[in-house]
Structures are given as structure tokens and as C-alpha cells.
């Protein structure tokens, strides 16, 4: 809204100025030297008049005197569009500095474990583009009511009586004097920035943000008559889009997506996809991920790496891989014979090998990378933060080395929910997300619960899926199971798999303890999923006076009863290998989402406006001896041919996976 001290012309051809409200009178019939029909009435004037006349009489008063009103008054009072006067850029009383700015949020991100509903704000944007496809104009600018509006520029839009919002024009629409627009928000209002403002922190900055970002799901048709002046602090429509969580309805916490590229499918891929599993442990995540991917395309883990010798040997046993040191050159013979390698060493040594041996890096492929870095420092179970916590926590940043060194199309990181706490967001998660964005990835971060996908344990985890901006955007996994008593099973979800469902045959196989087993809290309900299987210890059985056996813990992780026989080490080592894994059905859900994207060949479509610009440039180049055509070439390179931006296409897993539900 305009400032109260702002002044306006009170009559045509007059330089005399008054403050807003000076000419508002108690009687609509009162006459003076001012002609009411020549005053532009804004919300403040009408509000003051309303106190005197009452709202029912305002419209009659305005109509009787043929009074011109600004856009807010016109919309609020239901006036016709043709009452709006012609206005030109630079003559408006409003100023950008007088706008109501977004208030800075200081609250922490929502800590509750959301279950997956069909969030997909990007789906909304995608549907909007489809709905308007036949009406989209290729024009880069349109003149309306004496003002020229430009595509990919940002403007203030009227939003109610007391505030305005920033919108960027994506496309002009034919036969409507309107544009398809997307809302622009301040980057400081995104969820990670509410925890720590990184605007003055160069080491954490996001390239190209410059303080603003698109908001997903906000695409809408807006009449040009509702567009105010250009937003001075934004040069062009930001290329990055922020997908915010719909509280209480989705497991997706947020996403940052690059809209400057438009990946399109170019036929099904004929060759299998291959990748690496870093911090692999005994390979439980590999098992589930590969099984899920295989539903869409043949998938293979070429190499795994872990520093625990027992876990590396266990991985080799389970996945029929050849165990070796990271420093070894034996990989050449193995991989040339279509084999798999299980490497013992640190992630640092592994990435150094990739840098120093391009042939090794090439053999690994560039399809995907899985990372399950140590969680002890983030885990709430580690109350006293024992062990080398700081060093273990820093291992989560290795995903940035993977993005820089291996450059896979998809990266997946799994860790405990402690990574979503304020101090860990500040020290680790912001660096991870912003670093991946700077490396050209679209990043989705959310909370997934293993029980939501058919595992017999709860096990909530933070899952990050980063995909190259040059391929389709995977649909974040949607839950498939729920509680019968919650009313979310009938016709929508499968029933939760309970601990007893999986462990009933095992109940009487193991002897009970002579002394009572005490529960930490209430005894577990056998008809519900079990608690998370831990790496440090086994939990009490739901109905027997004993702890869960190694076999039972493996079954709760979705493994077969013979799984433990393939593990190497003592019982403590085996428990650690089981508890550090990712349950089978959760791994499948993640693999399924990734496989549905990687089964396609992708190419980045050239925007229409860019093609148009190149055609003009080619035409002018061919006729460069003609002065007129040379002039056209100069005009086409003035910056008006702005690049077209759209949201990368979402790749649905299947109709069965897009299940609507509520918490």
C-alpha cells in the first residue's frame, strides 16, 4: 500500500498536491473545489470513507461520481475491470520500500514424523502447465494499458487489501490479457534458512540464489491488471524452486529444484544401471535398493566400500563380490569379467583412488551412489556421544566428494533423524544440501518410516535423494502401509506388518532367561511393528523373557533366516552389521523411485525461446551484409529473448505407489 505521506495530483493539469485522506468528507453530497471523479481512490481512502458512510453505500457513491479506483478497491468492491485507469511505469504512488516484507521465522523445522501423502507440489505445477499448454504465447513481452511486461521478470502483485506478493511471469496467455505466474519468496524463509541464515556465509552460499527463489505449487493465471511495478531487487525470474512440506500430510520435508533445464525422455535405456555403495556395511541397503530398481530396470552394485573388515567380508559373502583393499589393483580383472568388488578402506581413500585412476572411476559407472555414513554422533541412542563423534559426523559430508568426483546421476543418503536437529542442520545438512545444489543436483529431503513400507519395525530415518538437474525428478517414496485403527487402511493402504507377523515361527526356538527382562518403557505390542533394530544391543522380546536373537533381528530387517550365517565376526559384530543396515522394504521403495527415472535415456530440451533466438541470430548472420538484417541481429541479443524455464518432469513410480493418506 502507498505511504500515508505520499501525495497525488488532485485535479487534471494541476500541480497542487494533497496528502492521502485530506479530501474525504462526512457527506457524499458535499461539494467543494475538488471533483471526486478526478481522484484516484485507493484502499485507505475507501476505508476512511467506510467509517463515515458504511460499506453498503460506498459502491453507490463511487458509481454516482464515476470515481476511479485502484486495483485493490476494484477487486474488493466487485467493480468492473474497465474502471481501472491507464497507468504507466514510474507514475505510481507505491514504492517497493513501502511493501510489507515477509517476517523472518525463528521456529525450528517441524520435528514430527510425517507419513507420506501425495504431496508433490511439482505435480500441481505440472498440471497447471498442461492445463494452459494450448494458450501459452511465445511472446517475450506484452504491452498492456500503456505498460510493457516481460516474461521471466518479477513483479509485485496485489494480494488482498493490506499486502502484496512477488510473482514472476513464466508465460503470457492468449485471449486473456493474463499471464501464467509463479510466486517468488525470499530465500531466508525456506526451512533451512530459518535455522541458520547463510546469506553472509560465502562457504555455505547457493549459487544463483541472490536472496529469492520460486515457490512450488504456486503457478497461477494472473490478470495483467493485477500486476504492479517490477520488483527492483530481482533482475530475472530465479531458476531454483523451493518445494515446501505440507505439514502433517507428507514425509517430504522440502526440496530445491532447478527449473532452468527441461529434461525429456529419449527412449528406454537398453543397458543395466550400475553404481556404488559407500559405507556399505554388510550390504542390507544394497539388497533392498537393487531389488526395488530391478522392478524397473536391471541394476547392479559394482563396488562397495567400508572400513570394517567383518562387514566387508560379510558383504562379499552376501553379494557374491570379491573382497580386496581399496589400494589394490585387482579390481581390473574382477570388473572386466563382470564381477563385483567389496573394498576395505575409508571413503577418503576410495575417492582418492577415483581421482588418481580415471579408469577405475569409469568402471564404476555414473548412475547412482548410496551413502549410509556413521550415525552415532547424530543418534539419540548415543546419549553420552561416545566414540569419535565429530569425525563420524563429518563423514556425512562425503556425499559432496561423491558429487564432485564420481558425478552420479542420483545420490541417496540415509541417516538417523538426529541430522534434522538444529545444531546438525547448521553444521552438516545445510552444507550437504547447498553443496549438492551447487554441483547441479535437485535435492529432496524427507523422513521415511520403514513400517510405512511393509517392514516389521518403525525405524524412522532421514532420506536425502539428489538427482541431476539433467534427468527427471524422482517421486519421493509414498507410504504403502498404515494402522487399521487409524482408518487409513480401507481402500488406501495395506495393514502394518507387525512384529508377531514376522516372528511367530521363531518364538519358541530360543531359551528364555532365568532372571526377568526389564523393558525400557512399556512392553512392546506384538500386534504393532517393533521398535528400531539397534546396532549396539538387542531389544526385549514382545512376549518371551529374553532378547531378540540375531536371526529375529535380521528378520525384522527383512532378511531371510539364513542371513546371519553369512555374516562374519562375533555376535557383537553381527548385531552391529544388522542394526546399521536399511530394512528391505524401505530400501526397495527408494530403489523403485530411482529405477523409474534411470530406466530412461534423458536429454535436456532446448527452450523454445532460445531456439527462436538462435534462428534469428542465424538469419541475421546469413544476411550480415544487409544493414537491416544486421539491425535485427542486434535486437535479438538485447536480453529480451529470456530463457524459458519449467519444472523438471516428475517420474511416477506407479499408480499403486501414489497413495493418498493422512497421518
List the helices and strands and how they pair.
Layout: E1 7-9, E2 17-19, E3 40-41, H1 43-53, H2 55-64, E4 68-69, H3 71-77, H4 121-131, E5 141-144, E6 147-150, E7 154-158, E8 164-173, E9 178-186, H5 191-195, E10 212-215, E11 220-223, E12 227-230, E13 240-244, E14 252-258, E15 262-268, E16 273-278, H6 284-293, E17 299-306, H7 309-319, E18 322-325, H8 331-336, E19 341-344, H9 347-356, H10 358-364, E20 368-371, H11 389-394, H12 398-405, E21 410-415, H13 422-438, E22 441-449, E23 460-468, E24 473-474, E25 481-482, E26 494-495, H14 499-503, H15 550-556, H16 571-579, H17 584-598, E27 600-605, H18 608-622, H19 627-636, E28 650-651
Parallel strand pairs: 3-4, 10-13, 16-17, 16-20, 17-19, 18-19, 20-21, 24-28, 25-26
Antiparallel strand pairs: 1-2, 5-6, 7-8, 7-12, 8-9, 9-10, 9-11, 13-14, 14-22, 15-27, 21-23, 22-23
Determine the fraction of residues in helical runs and give it as a percent range.
25-40%
Instruction: Supply the CATH superfamily name of the largest domain.
Output: Vaccinia Virus protein VP39
Parts with pLDDT < 50 across at least 5 consecutive residues: 1-53, 70-125, 610-647, 652-663
Average pLDDT value?
77
**How much of the polypeptide forms β-strand, as a percent range?**
15-25%
Structural class, judged by helices and strands?
alpha/beta
In whole angstroms, the N-to-C terminal distance is 40 Å
The count of helical stretches stands at: 19
The Rg value, from CA coordinates, equals 31 Å
- Assign the CATH topology of the largest domain: Rossmann fold
Please tell me what the overall shape is. globular
Amino acid at each position: 500500500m502507498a505511504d500515508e505521506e505520499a501525495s497525488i495530483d488532485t485535479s487534471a493539469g494541476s500541480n497542487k498536491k494533497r496528502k492521502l485522506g485530506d479530501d474525504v468528507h462526512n457527506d457524499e453530497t458535499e461539494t467543494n473545489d475538488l471533483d471526486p471523479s478526478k481522484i484516484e481512490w485507493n484502499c485507505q481512502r475507501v476505508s476512511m470513507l467506510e467509517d463515515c458512510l458504511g460499506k453498503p453505500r460506498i459502491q453507490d457513491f463511487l458509481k454516482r461520481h464515476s470515481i476511479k479506483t485502484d486495483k485493490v478497491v476494484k477487486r474488493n468492491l466487485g467493480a468492473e475491470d474497465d474502471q481501472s485507469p491507464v497507468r504507466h511505469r514510474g507514475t505510481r504512488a507505491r514504492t517497493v520500500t513501502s511493501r510489507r516484507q515477509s517476517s523472518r521465522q525463528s521456529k525450528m523445522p517441524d520435528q514430527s514424523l510425517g507419513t507420506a501423502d501425495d504431496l508433490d507440489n511439482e505435480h500441481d505445477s505440472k498440471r497447471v502447465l498442461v492445463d494452459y499448454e494450448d494458450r501459452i504465447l511465445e511472446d517475450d513481452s506484452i504491452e498492456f494499458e500503456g505498460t510493457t511486461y516481460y516474461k521471466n521478470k518479477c513483479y509485485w502483485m496485489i494480494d488482498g487489501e493490506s499486502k502484496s506478493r512477488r510473482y514472476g511471469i513464466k508465460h503470457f496467455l492468449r485471449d486473456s490479457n493474463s499471464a501464467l505466474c509463479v510466486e517468488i519468496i525470499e530465500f531466508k524463509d525456506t526451512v533451512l534458512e530459518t535455522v541458520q541464515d547463510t546469506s553472509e556465509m560465502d562457504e555455505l552460499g547457493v549459487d544463483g540464489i541472490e536472496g529469492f527463489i520460486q515457490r512450488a505449487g504456486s503457478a497461477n493465471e494472473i490478470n495483467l491488471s493485477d500486476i504492479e511495478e517490477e520488483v527492483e531487487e530481482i533482475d530475472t525470474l530465479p531458476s531454483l524452486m523451493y518445494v515446501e512440506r505440507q505439514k502433517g500430510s507428507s514425509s517430504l520435508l522440502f526440496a530445491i529444484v532447478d527449473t532452468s533445464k527441461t529434461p525429456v525422455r529419449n527412449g528406454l535405456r537398453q543397458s543395466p544401471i550400475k553404481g556404488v555403495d559407500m559405507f556399505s556395511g554388510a550390504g542390507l541397503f544394497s539388497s533392498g535398493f537393487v531389488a526395488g530398481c530391478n522392478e524397473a530396470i536391471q541394476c547392479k552394485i559394482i563396488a562397495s566400500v567400508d572400513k570394517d573388515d567383518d562387514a566387508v567380508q560379510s558383504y562379499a559373502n552376501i553379494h557374491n563380490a570379491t573382497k580386496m583393499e581399496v589400494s589394490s589393483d585387482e579390481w581390473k580383472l574382477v570388473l572386466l569379467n563382470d564381477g563385483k568388488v567389496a573394498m576395505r578402506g575409508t571413503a577418503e581413500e576410495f575417492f582418492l583412488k577415483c581421482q588418481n585412476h580415471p579408469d577405475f572411476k569409469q568402471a564404476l559407472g555414473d548412475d547412482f551412489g548410496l551413502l549410509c555414513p556413521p550415525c552415532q554422533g547424530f543418534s539419540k541412542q548415543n546419549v553420552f556421544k561416545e566414540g569419535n563423534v565429530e569425525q563420524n559426523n563429518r563423514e556425512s559430508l562425503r556425499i559432496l566428494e561423491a558429487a564432485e568426483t564420481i558425478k552420479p546421476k542420483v545420490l541417496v543418503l540415509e541417516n538417523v533423524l538426529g541430522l534434522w536437529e538444529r545444531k546438525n542442520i547448521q553444521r552438516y545438512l545445510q552444507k550437504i544440501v547447498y553443496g549438492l545444489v551447487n554441483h547441479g543436483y535437485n535435492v529432496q529431503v524427507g523422513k521415511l518410516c520403514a513400517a510405512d513400507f511393509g517392514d516389521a519395525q518403525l525405524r524412522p530415518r532421514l532420506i536425502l535423494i539428489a538427482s541431476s538437474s539433467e534427468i527427471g525428478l524422482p517421486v519421493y517414496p509414498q507410504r504403502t502401509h498404515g494402522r487399521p485403527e487409524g482408518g487409513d487402511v480401507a481402500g488406501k493402504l495395506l495393514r502394518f506388518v507387525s512384529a508377531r507377523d514376522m516372528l511367530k515361527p521363531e518364538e519358541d526356538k530360543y531359551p528364555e532367561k532365568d532372571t526377568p527382562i526389564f523393558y525400557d518403557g512399556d512392553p512392546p505390542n506384538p500386534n504393532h511393528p517393533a521398535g528400531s533394530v539397534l546396532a549396539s544391543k538387542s531389544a526385549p522380546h514382545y512376549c518371551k523373557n529374553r532378547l531378540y536373537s540375531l536371526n529375529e533381528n535380521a528378520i525384522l530387517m527383512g532378511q531371510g533366516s539364513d542371513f546371519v550365517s553369512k555374516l562374519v565376526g562375533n555376535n557383537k559384530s553381527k548385531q552391529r552389521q544388522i542394526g546399521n543396515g536399511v530394512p528391505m522394504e524401505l530400501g526397495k521403495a527408494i530403489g523403485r523411485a530411482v529405477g523409474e527415472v534411470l530406466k530412461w535415456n534423458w536429454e535436456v530440451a532446448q527452450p523454445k525461446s532460445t531456439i527462436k533466438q538462435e534462428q534469428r541470430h542465424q538469419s541475421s548472420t546469413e544476411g550480415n551484409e544487409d544493414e537491416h538484417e544486421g539491425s535485427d541481429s542486434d535486437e535479438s541479443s538485447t536480453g529480451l529473448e529470456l530463457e524459458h524455464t519449467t519444472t523438471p518432469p516428475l517420474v511416477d513410480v506407479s499408480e499403486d505407489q501414489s497413495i493418498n493418506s493422512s497421518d
